[in-house]
Structure formats: C-alpha cells, structure tokens
Design brief:
alpha/beta, Rossmann fold, formyl-coa transferase, domain 3, 6-stranded parallel beta sheet, 3-stranded antiparallel beta sheet, 18 helices
C-alpha cells in the first residue's frame, strides 16, 4: 500500500470568506479532496496573512489554514468583479461567504444572485449572529461572539474581570467545522436530485452548540450541568510526586476494584460502591476522606511511574498533558496530527484535519495497520499555502476569462 493515499477528487469550492470560520471550513474541505480557490483582497489577502505570530514574515494562521488552496487576488471594486464572480459561481460546486447578508448583497455575493448564475450551486453563508434577530446586524469579531454565547468563563484577576489565560475562542473554529458538515450534507442532497442548496451557520450558534450539555440540562431541569470537579473522588484529577497530574476515572465496579488493588487500598474501601446505576463516581464518599486517601497514595510516586501501574491495571485514566506535550507525543506522530510541507525552502508544520477518508477497496487485506498508515498520511501530498495571487493566471484560464 502506498504511504500516501490517493486523494479523493472532491468538490470545487470558491471561498470568498476572510479571517477564521470560512478558512477553517476550506481547510477541512481541502483535506477531504476539494479544489479550493481562495478569493482574496489584492493587498492584505484573506485576513489571515497579516495576523501575528509570524514564520519567516508570513502569518501562522495563513500557513496553517491555507495549504492546498489556490489564491485568486481580486479587488471587489474592479470593473471585472461581477464578471469574475459569475464565472466562479458557474465553475464551482460550492461557494463560501463570510459576510453579513447586507454586505454579501452589496458585493453581489448573495444567494439569489449566485444561484441565478448556477442553479446547482451549494451556497454556504457563515454569518456572525444569524440572518434573523436583534443581533443579526452586529459585526462579529473574535471573542464578542463567544461572549454572547456564554462560552467565556471569567476570572477575577486582582479585582479586574478577565478571561482565563488559557481560554481559546470556540465559535470561530466550530462554525468552520459545522459549515463543512453542512456543505457535504448539501452535496448529498444535490446528488439525490435536490438541485442547488443553501447552507447557513452562524458563529454564535456554533459557539452556543458547543455548550450543549449545559443548554440541554438547563432547558429540561432548570439546573446547571455539574462541573467536572464536583463529580466525586472516582472521577477526579490528582497530583503526583513530581508536581504533575493524573485524571482518574475508575467509576465502574470492575475498574474500581482493579484500581484499589493497584493502589493497595483496604478491602473496606474496595467494597464501597453503589453499582445499581452502572457506575459510582464517589461523590458519596468525599466526607469519608476517600479523595484525600487516594491523593496521599498518588503523591508517593511520579506521574510516569503511576502511568505504568495504572496501564497494567487496565483502568480508564490519563496523564493530564498540556497541548505542547500532546502535539509532540509519539501518539500524535502515529496518527499524523501534524503535517510538514516545504514552503519556499523552509519547512512549515501545520495541524492536519483529524478526519481521513480512505477507499475501502484499497484497505482490503491491509487490516488495521494499513488503515492506520492511511490515516497517518492523510495530509501528505497537499501543496504549500499559496502566495497572494499566485494562481490568478491559471484560474482565469480555467474560467475562460481573458485580460481580467
């Protein structure tokens, strides 16, 4: 089996979006085989090229999100803009728009206009706050969408409210992922004779949907979904001798018994548990000092030592890593989490999409080892991120446009 799987021939995509949600969607579509043309402003690109931090003078966001795309630098104020937009709509299976509906209409990128050019088109609008409601006209900008979705946990830092140091925005990434899902659902509808389709996701709804446990619990019970740290002594984070941490989850009876044996806990503690519901998180035993007892045991050895002990016991647990440890782990390498490509003589490492699609026929006789190799190689063979306007002439030839 080839170390680089044959890439799926995916849909043709014209991406007019800027900044993060649309490029995230395009990143996933390229990974799945799409031919993506990025329509970019001729001076500053799609908005990600100029955003810090930088690698060799280029924005990391651009280098991470745009490998495999083609760049068409085009001024929306140019006389040729309507003609080229129409040609792109006829060329494309999918267009991605990242403007407010009023802006899209002003630029001739509204769904009525583009579907007139191509009635079979999949039109995807990623808006900030939706196409209805009192917030629909608000400009979406980074964290303000998360703020209105309730995903930001505030901390009091020396008398001043602020986000946690480790907080990362949710909506902008989730909206791109949800858009990619919607696009493939729309392509399927079209393949079944449904004609052109209109896909919409708002960044705000994507952020709010991330909180589905909280919204579902509150909507049906009026109560908050419990915080992880309140689950109990058997679903908790514990420190180890070397100042590191472990998450322990021996909540089923057979796991709890193996855990107690591994830590050499007393038979009285081993016998504790109400298994009538299938699991016991240990909340009933906090007053008996069970958490303190487990913590005292774990503080006698390093995290690495306990990883060996608990792995042999075959119970659910995990060392609590930071994202640096995770991305640099052997496990990440085995799964192709990071891709490397040559960019004008420099090696750029960028996150690969976590999704792979492999021909079932190609895997016959390969087993899981072959499947793992195909998944690990999912991002290999994707071209570098383009320079601004690099593909103008090539794309104009494909569109049959002269002297644009």
């Amino acid at each position: 089996m080839s170390s680089v799987p044959k890439r799926v021939s995916g849909p043709r995509v014209a991406d007019f979006s800027t900044h993060l949600p649309g490029p995230v969607a395009s990143h996933h579509l390229v990974q799945l085989g799409a031919d993506v043309i990025k329509v970019e402003h001729p001076k500053w690109g799609d908005g990600n090229r100029a955003v810090a931090p930088y690698f060799e003078g280029e924005g990391i966001h651009h280098l991470a999100l745009n490998p495999g795309t083609r760049s068409l630098a085009l001024d929306s104020k140019a006389p040729s803009w309507p003609k080229i937009v129409g040609a792109l709509a006829r060329w494309a299976d999918v267009v991605i728009i990242g403007n407010r509906p009023s802006t899209a209409q002003r630029l001739g990128l509204d769904f009525q206009t583009l579907l007139r050019h191509n009635p079979q088109l999949i039109y995807c609008l990623i808006s900030g706050y939706g196409i209805a409601g009192e917030w629909a006209s608000y400009p979406a900008h980074g964290l303000n969408v998360d703020a209105l979705a309730g995903t930001i946990a505030l901390e009091n830092q020396a008398g001043r409210l602020d986000t946690s140091e480790h907080y990362r925005s949710v909506g902008t990434t989730m909206a791109g992922i949800e858009a990619a899902v919607g696009i493939y659902a729309a392509l399927y509808q079209r393949s079944q004779g449904g004609g052109g389709q209109v896909v919409h996701v708002s960044i705000w709804e994507a952020a709010l949907s991330w909180m589905w446990r909280d919204t579902a619990t509150f909507a049906n019970t009026g109560a908050s979904w419990p915080a992880y740290k309140s689950f109990g002594s058997r679903y908790a984070i514990y420190g180890t001798l070397d100042g590191k941490a472990l998450l322990l989850c021996p909540t089923e009876k057979h796991f709890w018994e193996r855990f107690c044996d591994a830590l050499e806990l007393s038979t009285e503690i081993r016998a504790r548990g109400d298994w009538s519901g299938g699991s016991d998180m240990g909340a009933s035993y906090l007053a008996l000092g069970e958490r303190e007892l487990i913590q005292a045991k774990l503080m006698t050895k390093s995290r690495e030592t306990w990883v060996g002990v608990l792995a042999r016991a075959d119970i659910p647990f995990a060392p609590v890593l930071d994202w640096r440890e995770a991305m640099l782990s052997q496990h990440a390498e085995a799964n192709g989490v990071m891709n490397a490509y040559d960019h004008h003589g420099k090696t750029v490492r960028s996150p690969a999409s976590p999704v792979s699609v492999t021909s079932g026929e190609a895997l016959i006789g390969q087993g899981y080892e072959g499947w793992a190799q195909a998944h690990r190689s999912k991002a290999q063979g994707i071209a570098r991120a383009p320079t601004l306007g690099e593909h103008n002439e090539q794309i104009f030839r494909e569109l049959g446009i002269d002297g644009a």
